Amino acid sequence: MIVEIRKAGFLNKGAELMLYAILDKMKREFPVAKFAMAPHPVAAPYEERIKLHLYQKPDIWRYRFQWGKVFSLIPRFFRKMYGVVLDREIDVVLDAAGFGYSDQQGRNASLGLANACKRWKKNGAKVILLPQAFGPFNDPVIRKSMKIAIENADIIFARDKISYDYLIDIAGERQTIRISPDYTNLIEGILPDDFDTINNQFCLIPNYRMIDKTSEDKSSLYIPFMIKCAQYLIKRGVKPFLLVHDGINDLLLAEEISKGVGGEIPIVKETHPLKIKGIIGASEGMVGSRFHGLVSALSQGVPALATGWSHKYEELFNDYDFPEGILNVTCNEQKLHNKLDMIINQKSQAIIKKTLGEKSSIQKQQSEMMWTEVFTLLNSKK
Q: What is the signed CA dihedral for 166, 362, 245, 5, rounded to 10 degrees?
C-alpha cells in the first residue's frame, strides 16, 4: 500500500508535528506501507523527506504541462531505484492541511483539492481529509470546488463544529463528514536533555500570523500585548521564556518582545517538533498564538492563554472546557493581569489543570476513534 501524505510537511512546526503524528499511527497499523509526498523546495525539501523515508511523488498538477507525461514513461523498476511513485500508483491519500481551505486561503487551494479528488477517485484511491479547520466559504468558486471535493472524498473530518457547519452548508449533512479533534494530541513530546526547566518556567509563543492575518488595529497591538505579558510575569516572579515555534518571522517577533523587556527573557530555538512539544509539556503555563503549540499545552494539562486569528482557537478552547483562556490583544491591562493570575495562582491553576486533564482524556479517545475509522476504511480496501 502506497500512502500519499498531503499538506503536512516542513513549512511550519504544526505541519511537521501532524506529519510525525500520522506516520506514528499509520506505521503501527500498516508496518509495510510506503509513504509518499510531493516535493516542494520549502514545505517538503529532499533533505527533510529523506530523513523520514518518504518516497517522491511528482506533483502533476504543478508540472502537468512540462513533466506530467515524462514521469509515466520511465519504467517502474527504474523509478523504484530512485524512490519515485506516480499519482496513479497511490492507494490512499491523507490530506493533513491544518487550515488550508477557506476564503482566507484563496481559490487555488480549493480548486487544486477539487481536481485532485476527482482524479484520485477515478484512480480508485481512498481519500481522507484528516481533522482540520474549514471555511468560511462565501466565494462562489471556492464553494463549487469544495462541493466537488466533498462528493469525491471518502471521509472528511472537521476539527470543530463551526468547520463542520461550513461544510454541510455546501453539501448538506453526509455520513462522510464527521467531527474529530486535532490528532497531534496523541503523540508524545520529548524533553531535550539540555533544556533548563529551572530558568525557563513559563512559555511565550509568538505567531507572525497575528501580524499578517489580523486587522491593522489588532496587528499593531500584538507585540505591545506580548511585552505586557512578559513584564507582568517577570513582576510576579514567574520565569518566562520565548519559544520559537516557527521560522524566521516568529524569531524576529521573539527578539523584539525580548528587547521590549530589556532582554531579560531567554529565547529558545528548538527545531524538532516533538522536542518543542516536550518543552511545552514541561512548562508551568503558556501564552501563545500558534494553534498546535496550544494543542500541545492543553492536551498535556498545561494552563494556557491564547490570542488567535480564526475561529479554530475559540473552538479548541471550548473543546477543553476552558473558554476563559481566550484573550484579545485589545483588552486592558487589568483584564490581562487577571487572566495571567488565573493560570499562575496555585489554587486556580490546580482547578484548571484538573479540567484540562479530564478533557484531554476525552479528546484523545475521540482521536483514537478517528484513527479506528480510518483504519477500518483502509483495511476494507486492502
A: -60
Contact assessment for residue 277 and residue 203, using Cβ atoms and an 8 Å cutoff: no
DSSP codes, 128-175: EEEEE-B----SHHHHHHHHHHHHH-SEEEESSHHHHHHHHHHH---T
Let me know: does 103 contact 137? Beta carbons within 8 Å: yes
Per-residue model confidence as pLDDT tens digits over 35-44: 999 988 888 8
What is the reported pLDDT for 73? 66
Helix (H) or strand (E) run with residue 19 in it:
helix 13-29
**What is the Cα–Cα distance from 91 to 55, expressed in whole angstroms?**
14
Assess contact for 180 and 366: CB atoms under 8 A. Answer: yes
Q: Which residues, listed in sequence order, are joined to residue 251 by a DSSP beta bridge?
A: none
Q: Are 22 and 5 in contact (CB under 8 A)?
A: yes
* Paired residues of 126 in beta bridges: 92
> Which residues have CB under 8 Å from 351's CB, separation 6+?
none
To the nearest whole percent, how much of the chain has pLDDT over 90?
83
**Domains in the chain, CATH or no CATH each:** 2-187+363-381 (3.40.50), 202-362 (3.40.50.2000)
Write down the pLDDT at residue 63.
47
Largest Cα span, the chain: 68
| Grid cell in block for residue 57 | 511523488
Judge contact between 96 and 130, C-beta under 8 A.
yes
Contact 76, 21 (CB under 8 A): no
Q: What is the pLDDT of residues 129-147, one digit of tens each?
A: 999 999 999 999 999 999 9
Residues of the chain with pLDDT under 50: 61, 63-66
How far is CA 347 from its chain centroid?
A: 32
pLDDT at 246: 84
What gap in Å lies between CA 330 and CA 352, rounded to an integer?
24
Tell me, what amino acid is at 241?
F
Nearest residue to 280 via CA among 177, 187, 210: 187
- 180: region left, alpha or beta (phi > 0 left; psi from -120 to 50 alpha): beta
Write down the pTM of the prediction: 0.92
Distances (CA, A) of 372 to 26, 180, 190, 366, 367: 11, 12, 25, 10, 9
